[in-house]
Amino acid sequence: MTGTIINVATVIAGGTLGTLLGEKLPSRIRHIVMQGVGLVTLAVGMSMAITTRNFLLVLISIIIGGMLGEWWGLEERLDTAGKWLEAKASRFPLLARGEFTKGFVTASLVFCVGPMTILGSIQDGLAGDYTLLAIKSVLDGFSALAFAASMGMGVTFSAVTVLVYQGALTLGASLFQNVLTDTIVTEMTATGGVMILGIGLLLLEIKRVRVANFLPALAIAPLLVALWEKWGPR
Fold it and tell me: Which of 230, 89, 61 has the alpha carbon at shortest distance from 160?
């Protein structure tokens, strides 16, 4: 759990510092910061998405995952969690600043969707090697700072999501040891990249994509890869 604890600490530090700095910046500066973060998020998502070896698998994963997410109401559940935290934080002026729920949901998705989250957690759990999560922690810390400068303290509270999600992956790492082949990791990465593209569109206020409802796609992708490798064309 060492890597996850480091990650949680950097998100808290970056989110808190970003909130403090953001309050001192004019709204137009915070807006341009968010546009910059949105553009980079699109670039990251695209770079992940194009690693796929089979866009059909990614497409089917996204469609089935999105349908399951809508059925289970994942976006609404995450929003509800954010609003509950926002209600608790409203008692404290500093915590209540900014777009709390948006910051919580957006940062939770960005910090938990990607290959470094999955592979780093598994390495930490199996071998105690938290190098990958340490690198991710630095990236997340700076991202949290940039997000919080525009969206406030909700970004800091996404550390709770990181702790629960990455912690669960680390503790259950032995279950994934013999499952995650290179092909599976590649297609999961590409599927996560498509979701990150949706986050970029949201940050740029181009289109509100219900990204959280696509989360099941990360579980659908490895299943489809396994089926394709067994019964697909050679």
Answer: 89
Q: How far apart are CA 82 and CA 84, in angstroms?
A: 5
Please write the tens of the pLDDT for every residue from 136-181.
898 888 889 888 888 888 899 999 999 998 988 888 877 776 777 7
149: containing domain: 2-231
Consecutive H or E run containing 43: helix 27-49
- Is residue 97 within 8 Å of 103, Cβ to Cβ? no
pTM of the model: 0.78
Q: Dig out the tokens for 136 from the structure.
A: 């991710």
Look at the chain and report how many structural domains it folds into.
Answer: 1
Distances (CA, A) of 178 to 17, 25, 59, 172, 182: 40, 49, 25, 12, 11
Dihedral angle of Cα 19, 25, 29, 35, to the nearest 10 degrees: 0
